[in-house]
């Protein structure tokens, strides 16, 4: 046997593919990568993390927005104008929790707002998405009608519902027969009713928003998964919860984050209704009134903003932790 016969390449055997060497980036490539990565990071730091960290720092100061900041500690029993810009420690948080009467009602209203969005508006939007995805008759029309509130600004949504809630001429009081001076229901003026009335407005818009997100997720689900589930004898309810819903984990995370953000940054509707007072106190309104209002207590308003940030991070971080922990566990341990 000759050497030619022993050579696998010469004998016609397939040659192992050669690995391509990735060349080093040129100067131009490095500049492009630096721009593509550096510019978004700088924008993110400048408009998100920078203001957030600055707010946390300002929450420990006593500052009215005029003049500079200093590292000296605020002196007790001294007029505020002489203590401007000094370090105040946790006194802003202590005052908010003890001597600021609007704080705890605002916290309670924000938590109610969050609960309504999570347990009512989000499931309602999911239901709309599932029904439309099943191809019911007129689904395009229903999708357009339900998505219409999302296209409107919250200010316009508030104005529309003010006409709906009008005591003497509103649609709701007219339909239920309470549009006379003697029995008219003041939906937006009664502190026991106005929060729930505004939550109906907000949920009307939020449900359409969630519907669009879930529709996008449902369209991305592999149809073969549903066919396999049907062949296994599962009904529509079981197919959705045991097959379709777990596959939409990325969409569930997006919906959860969006829901928390939308519920805790609520401002427009309550401010249009009665400027966020008389039963509609929210932390976002208190932050605005303290920072840009007549008092201009920037440090105190920043402390309220930090409280709002913490409230928003707790459910988001908890949901993400439980979701990724469940995904990291072995299938037999779930």
Radius of gyration: 29 Å
For the terminal residues, how far apart are their CA atoms?
61 Å
Are there runs of 5+ residues with pLDDT below 50, and where?
none
**What's the total count of β strands?**
2
Tell me about the biggest sheet? 2 strands, antiparallel
Spatial strand order of the main sheet? 1-2
Determine the structural class based on helices, strands and strand pairing.
Answer: mainly alpha
Q: Roughly what percent helix?
A: 55-70%
Instruction: Bin the strand percentage.
Output: under 5%
Shape: globular
What is the element string, with H for helices and E for strands? HHEEHHHHHHHHHHHH
Rounded mean pLDDT score: 84
Question: What count of helical segments does DSSP give?
Answer: 14
């Amino acid at each position: 046997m000759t050497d030619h016969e022993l050579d696998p390449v010469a004998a016609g055997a397939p040659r192992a593919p050669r690995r391509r060497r990735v060349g080093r980036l040129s100067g131009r490539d490095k500049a492009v990568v630096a721009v593509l990565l550096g510019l978004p990071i700088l924008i993110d730091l400048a408009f998100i993390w920078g203001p957030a960290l600055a707010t946390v720092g300002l929450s420990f100061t006593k500052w009215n927005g005029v003049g500079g900041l200093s590292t000296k500690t605020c002196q007790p029993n001294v007029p505020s104008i002489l203590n401007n810009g000094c370090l105040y420690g946790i006194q802003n948080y202590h005052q908010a929790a003890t001597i600021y009467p609007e704080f705890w009602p605002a916290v309670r209203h924000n938590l109610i707002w969050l609960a309504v969005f999570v347990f009512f508006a989000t499931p309602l939007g999911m239901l709309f998405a599932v029904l439309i995805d099943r191809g019911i008759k007129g689904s395009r029309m229903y999708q357009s009608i339900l998505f219409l509130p999302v296209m409107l600004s919250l200010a316009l949504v508030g104005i529309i519902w003010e006409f709906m809630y009008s005591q003497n001429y509103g649609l709701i009081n007219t339909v239920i027969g309470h549009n006379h001076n003697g029995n008219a229901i003041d939906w937006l003026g009664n502190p026991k009713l106005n929060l729930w009335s505004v939550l109906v407005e907000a949920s009307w818009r939020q449900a359409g928003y969630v519907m669009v997100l879930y529709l996008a997720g449902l369209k991305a689900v592999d149809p073969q998964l549903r066919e396999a589930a049907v062949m296994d004898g599962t009904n529509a309810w079981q197919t959705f919860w045991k097959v379709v819903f777990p596959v939409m984990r990325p969409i569930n995370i997006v919906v959860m984050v969006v829901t928390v953000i939308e519920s805790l940054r609520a401002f427009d509707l309550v401010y249009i209704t009665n400027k966020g007072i008389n039963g509609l106190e929210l932390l976002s309104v208190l932050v605005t009134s303290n920072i840009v209002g007549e008092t201009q207590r920037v440090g105190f308003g920043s402390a309220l903003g930090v409280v709002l940030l913490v409230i928003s991070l707790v459910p988001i971080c908890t949901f993400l932790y439980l979701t990724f922990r469940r995904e990291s566990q072995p299938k037999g341990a779930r």
